[in-house]
Structure formats: C-alpha cells, structure tokens
Specification:
The complex is a heterodimer of chains A (174) and B (531). Chain A has 174 residues and is mainly alpha-helical. Chain A is 47% helix and 0% strand. Chain A is globular and about 65 Å long. Chain B is of the alpha/beta class and 531 residues long. In chain B, 26% of the residues lie in helices and 21% in strands. In chain B, the strands form four sheets. In chain B, strands 1, 2, 8, 9, 10, 11 and 19 form a seven-stranded mixed sheet that branches. In chain B, helix 6 crosses helix 15 and helix 8 crosses helix 14. The two termini of chain B are 26 Å apart. Classes of the chains: A mainly alpha (174), B alpha/beta (531). The complex binds flavin-adenine dinucleotide.
C-alpha cells in the first residue's frame, strides 16, 4: 500500500497528532450515525462477506458505536473526522473509487497515524473491519467456513449443538 | 490502631478466596481480613469486551510485572512477563482455566526418580478411593465441582484416577482442525484427550474472557464478589492497595502481627490475627517470609534451614510445529483455547527423564481475516490464504525437577504495588538437553505420521506461570518450609497456601490441585481453630 501516493485532498492530508482526536460533542447526531453506518456497509460490499448490506449485524454495530462513544476514551472526534474524510474522498473520486482507494490503495505511510486520513483508516475503518469480522463477517470468505471466531457470540453455553466445526472420526459415518 | 481478626489472608487469589469461602460456609460469623497489594480492576462491561477484541487489550494489563523489572541469573532467561496478575482476584483473572489433576506418581517424585522431592501427602489424601464409604472428602472432585470443570471421564488416565466419578460438565469436543493431529497421535500410539476447562457459571461479559460463545471461564474475582456481597458474612472484609511488608513474629517464632502499607495513603497499619495465611503466589509468599525476620528467624520466617525461595521450578515449554501446503477445508482452531491434549507421556515410565503434558497450540491453525482486510488484501487474496499453507503446533509442558541451587531472592527496590523486586537464579539440569530432545523426537513422530513438514522442534526457557516450590512442603524442617498442612515449620499459626508449597511442579497446570489443597487447608483450619 505504501507504494501508492497518499490519497485525498486537504482534509485527508491535514496533519494531526497520533492520539485520539478530541471533540466537544458528547454524542453523535442521528445523521452522523447514518453516515457512519454507510461507511460500515461499504466494508461488506467491498469484500462481499456479509449479505443484505450488513443488515443482520446492525444491532451489533450500534452497540459497538454506543460503547465507543458513551464510555471513555470517546471516539466521537474520530467518527466526526472519518465522516469528513470520506466525504472529501467521495467528492474527489466518486463513491465507488473513493471506497476502493480507501480500503485497498490508500498510500498511508507505515507508522503512527498523523494525518486525518490515517486516523480515519486506523481508528475507524480498521476497527469497523474487526468488529464486522467478529460479528459474522468471518463466515463470508472461502467455503466451507468455520462456525466460530474469537469473539463471536453464537449461542448458549451448554448447548449440545457444536458451535464449531467438530471433529468426526473417519469411518464414523456422521 | 491495631485491628484484630480471626484470620488474615495475604493475597486475594483463588487460594485465599477458596479457603475463606470454606471457613465462612462453616461459620458465617468468622472474622476474616483479606489483603491484596493490587487494585480492584473494573472488568465487566461492553467497552472492555470490545477493546479486548479490537486491540487484545485487557483491563488488567497494568497489573503484570513490567518487562526488565525483575532479573534472572544463571543460564536461562526466566519468563516473568504475563506470569501473574497483581490485583483483586489474583492470577485467575487471566488464566487459561485448564484444570487437570496431578497423577498418583507425582506425589512420590523423589522415591520414583531420586530427583526433586516427594510430597508429604499422597494422591489418596486429595481423592480417597473410599471417600463415600469412609466419609472422607474427595477434594479433587469438590474442586472440580466448584470450578465447574468439563472433561471426558472415559480417557484411560481418568478411568484410573477418578474413582468412577464423572466431570461436572461435558467436555468441549474436539474441533475439526484437531482431526489431523488426533489421527497422527493415534498412529504413533498416543491417546488423544479433551482439555478439561473450568467453565464456571453464566457469561459474565468480563472483558477479560475469551471463551465466547460459551461465556465464562472460572475467575476467582466472581467468588470474591459473592463473598463480599453475601449478607451472612458480616465479618468478612477485603482491602486492595494493601501491601503486606512484614510478618511480625514473637519470641516463640509464631506470627504475632502483620504490617501493611496502604499504598494510596502511605500509611502503615498493623493487624493481629489468630491465624495468618500467606496466599501471595509463589514469588511473593517466599519473599514476604524472607523479609520477615524476628527473634527466632534471623534469615526470615521459616528459613532456618535455608530452603525458603530454593528449588523454584516450573515447566519448560516444548514445541513442534509442522506445515502442510494446502488447507482445502479452511480449518482454523475456532476456539481461543486448546481442545486436544494427551497424558500418554505423563506416566510413571516417563517420570525419570521428565514427563510431558502435550496439547495442541490454542491459536493454530488460524488466519486473522480482519488483519488481512486491514492490510488491503482482496477477497480473492484472502480466500487463497485461507486455503493455502496451514501450520499446526504441538506443545508440551516438560516437567522440570526442583534443584537446591535454583532459587528466588529479593532484588533491591519495589514495583508500583510496593512489592519487592525479584531475582531468580536458575541453572538447567545438564541432563535436560538430552531429555528434552527425546521428548521432542516423540512429538515429532506425530508430525511424521501426519505427513507434515516440521518447521521447528524446540524448547523455551521456563517461566513464572506455573512456578512452584519456594516454600515447599516436607516431612520435616530439614526438607521443607511447610508441613503436610502447609503450616510453616516452627510456627503454630502461620500457613502458606500457594503453589509455593508444592514440592514439585509435575507436568500439568497447578490450579486444580491448589484449589483442592485450599479446601483441605480450610477443613484443617476449621478443625484446629475451633471455628
Ligand atoms: C497466563 C497464565 C495462564 C495460566 N493458565 C493456567 C491454567 O490454564 N490452568 C492452571 O491450572 N493454572 C494456570 N495458571 C496458573 C494460575 O493462574 C495460578 O496457579 C493461580 O492463579 C495461583 O493462585 P494464587 O491464589 O496462589 O495466587 P495469585 O492468583 O497470583 O494471587 C496472589 C495475590 O497476592 C497478592 N500479593 C502478593 N504479595 C502480596 C503482599 N505482600 N501483600 C498483599 N498482597 C500480595 C497479589 O497482588 C495477587 O493478587 C496460569 C497462569 C498464567 C500466568
């Protein structure tokens, strides 16, 4: 990824400190929630690993964003930043290309995130990717896929039904 | 001001908590003070949970030893990092919860091998075959009930040891990814088994636990929370940030008081008790006693025969890793803990040259899909990686034997919880290398049977996770710091309840045995203190 020149315009290239961005607001407005959700949905579209535009994991995503914005350290500054970075990328490259570049060819240099683009990638996109994978996205790659993944919450504790692909001895006929 | 209690516990890990619970269940009015140098770590909450998943960050990370703080002398690099948690609830806050019994021959190590030490008790003292008929307590079985251990009673070693008793919970079955190793083991005559895990109760959403989707592994914090919240136990009290500096002893050598530092206020407080239980883990239990000199104890309480801190021992870690070029079924381990293990080389025949407890690496095979996505790999690239080369590793704990020259001592200075720093001097037994190579060769045969290419067959240095023996039990003061009831020789009222009191480390994890020993100590205290 580092061979590519870093994408974006003046907003994306704005220089900031590597630590979490501050913000004076204490909660996200409804439209900001929607904009963030739209970003999240693009992950599933880009990798094709979740059906129906991620609708089945929306409640998990909401819960994740709530935990990230209602308890310290707050991610509100990061979320607001990511929204404006994505808006700029879409303005510059059009919707599809913007997300393609952001996910696959962003040119962000290695090391601590010191631009607004790098913040959006590290603190928002990357965390959304991990959240999406944990919530079920892990199942959407090569088939047959595993049934469980670190952090996936898929059932009751003493359920007799295996929650993982279980070993079946050869010749057991199962 | 001096406060008085019937019992004072130094440490708030599973050992102290289990004994206290036993005492309180016998007499709810028992007055007990439990002190811990560490803080109470807030761990329950969704944000902790997400932070754990996203960053692998745990709320108690700051309660580990800091790298470089403690030192090793000798010919290995002793592993200190992440080997204990100094906090409310102690180290089971982050343990793996593998709950395996020691075997009968483990209690007679010296008699069988002329190395290490015998225990002054036998397997039958912890699990009497005639428990029902005689009314004796089966401590191992009770400990398994308490920790809610799951396992398979039909494994050959369990049939020999469990007196026909089941596990309280059904085992976690093997995963499909275990299959190839299971079959490899069977080909070379190794019996595959299921890892017994302490599953405990309902999901607590701790932010510290990696056992979803099944919720909960045992964590002593929960039991301590319950003891504190129980309205019957009015005289039970726990204090954090309370670092015990000294055990004051009287002219007869008995414990007369303890002094602790409240690390938040800087105040030193004195507590007196009828009975004192040091349950501060293998390092701190011996260090506290070393620092506690008195009229009868010039070199530290319990140290008149220079055994305190000596014989420190833990497992060396053996690993054999193999690869195969493709993974058409896209196998991953799926759980974050191992499901496959074997005790086939944890036998009397293997004891002389060191038993091993084998298990499949809990992380392999695995592909971190999210990381690949973050790196910008496309769907096709990720699919190719999932179906590409697969690595599996077999690991084993190798049973090291306690040696007099290996010892733990005080390093000048204190850590951020006010606990003294540690020096461990450890020299490998010269016979280790040949013995470990033999064990690695046996493990490698499994990979040959699997037709996997061996990437490495190697051993790591021992570390603190399962360290034992710094206050080991013996028949007499000449061969132990503590007696068969974990009472310090030469005292009437001072006990060590810890892996520190174990005369050997065996090949398996210690905590089920520690829990059984804690229950046994509880009964001993009930009997001897007229509680
Ligand atoms: C990574 C890891 C994984 C493990 N997995 C397993 C496993 O799967 N199975 C197994 O059987 N075992 C396992 N163990 C070992 C297990 O954690 C310990 O055997 C067990 O927790 C020891 O309990 P304890 O009560 O003796 O000591 P601890 O739980 O360590 O508690 C001792 C407490 O004493 C406090 N303390 C120390 N000194 C003082 C002082 N001077 N004053 C006041 N307080 C003091 C400390 O702060 C600490 O909280 C694992 C250990 C590690 C590190």
């Amino acid at each position: 990824m580092t061979d590519t020149e870093m994408i974006g315009g003046p907003i994306s290239k704005g220089v900031v400190l590597a630590n979490l961005l501050d913000h004076e607001d204490t909660f996200l407005a409804a439209h900001q929630h929607d904009q963030l959700w739209d970003i999240f949905v693009e992950i599933g579209r880009a990798w094709g690993n979740i059906a129906n535009d991620s609708a089945s994991i929306k409640s998990s995503w909401r819960e994740f964003v709530h935990a990230k914005t209602s308890e310290p350290p707050s991610y509100i500054g990061e979320y607001v930043n990511a929204i404006s970075v994505v808006q700029e990328l879409v303005r510059l490259y059009g919707h599809e290309d913007a997300f393609h570049k952001l996910f696959f060819a962003n040119g962000i240099p290695e090391g601590p995130p010191v631009t607004r683009l790098a913040h959006a990638k590290v603190y928002v996109i990357d965390e959304f990717i991990r959240m999406q994978t944990v919530a079920g996205g892990f199942k959407g790659f090569a088939q047959p896929a595993s049934l469980n993944y670190k952090g996936y919450v898929g059932g009751s504790r003493y359920n007799e039904t295996p929650r993982v692909r279980a070993y079946t001895p050869k010749g057991s006929g199962q | 001001m001096t406060e008085h209690f019937q019992f004072v516990f130094i440490g708030s890990g599973v050992a102290a908590i289990t004994v206290s619970k036993r005492l309180l269940e016998h007499n709810p009015n028992a007055s007990i003070l439990m002190l811990d140098a560490g803080p109470k770590v807030e761990a329950k909450g969704r944000r902790y949970w997400w932070d754990y998943l996203i960053f692998d960050r745990k709320p108690y990370d700051f309660c580990y030893d800091i790298k470089g703080e403690n030192e090793t002398k000798g010919d290995i690099n002793w592993g200190y990092f992440s080997s204990r948690v100094m906090a409310y609830g102690g180290s089971t806050v982050h343990w793996g919860a593998w709950s395996v019994r020691y075997k009968p021959e483990d209690f007679n190590l010296y008699s069988n091998t002329e190395e290490g030490a015998d225990w002054p008790i036998n397997y039958e003292d912890l699990s009497p075959p005639d428990a029902e008929a005689t009314g004796k307590t089966d401590y191992y079985y009770e400990a398994e009930q308490y920790l809610s251990v799951c396992g398979d009673p039909e494994e050959s070693w369990n049939r020999e040891m469990r007196n026909g008793k089941p596990y309280p919970r059904p085992d976690f079955g093997w995963t499909a990814a275990d299959g190839v190793m299971i079959e490899g083991m069977q080909t070379v005559g190794i019996e595959p088994g299921k890892m017994p895990i302490a599953r405990y109760r309902k999901c607590m959403t701790t932010g510290t636990c990696k056992y979803c989707p099944f919720g909960s592994r045992f964590n002593a914090q929960y039991v301590l929370d319950d003891l504190i919240a129980d309205p019957r136990y009015q005289n039970f009290e726990q204090r954090c940030h309370a670092t015990v500096l000294n055990i004051v002893t009287d002219d007869k050598g008995n414990a007369a008081a303890i002094e602790y530092l409240d690390t938040r206020t800087g105040e030193t407080r004195t507590i007196t008790a009828d009975t004192y239980v040091v349950a501060a883990g293998t390092y701190e239990s011996s260090k506290l006693m070393m620092r506690s000199t008195g009229p009868k104890w010039e070199n530290g309480v319990g140290n008149n025969t220079d055994l305190l801190g000596r014989h420190i021992v833990s497992h060396s870690f053996l690993r054999v890793k193999g690869t195969t070029p493709t993974n058409p079924e896209h196998w991953v381990q799926e759980y974050d803990f191992p499901t496959l293990m074997s005790r086939s080389y944890d036998t009397p025949e293997m004891q002389k040259d060191g038993k091993i407890f084998m298990f499949k690496n809990r992380v392999l095979p695995n592909t971190d899909i999210a990381k690949l996505m973050m790196q910008g790999k496309t769907r096709d690239e990720i699919n190719a990686i999932l179906g590409g080369p697969m690595a599996i590793e077999m690991q084993a704990f190798y049973e090291e034997k306690g040696r007099f020259e290996n010892r733990l001592t005080l390093k000048p200075g204190t850590n951020r919880f006010g606990l003294p720093l540690t020096t461990i001097e450890y020299h490998r037994d010269p016979r280790f290398f040949k013995r470990a190579e033999d064990r690695l060769a046996r493990m490698s045969k499994v990979f040959d049977a699997m037709n996997y290419k061996i990437e490495h067959a190697k051993y790591d240095d021992p570390g603190g996770h399962h360290a034992t023996s710094t206050c080991r039990m013996g028949e007499t003061e000449a061969d132990g710091v503590t007696d068969r009831d974990m009472k310090v020789f030469g005292t009437d009222n001072l006990y060590v309840c810890s892996n520190a009191a174990f005369p050997s480390c065996t090949a398996v994890n210690p905590t089920l045995t520690l829990t059984a020993m804690s229950m046994r100590l509880g009964d001993h205290l009930i009997r001897t203190t007229n509680l």
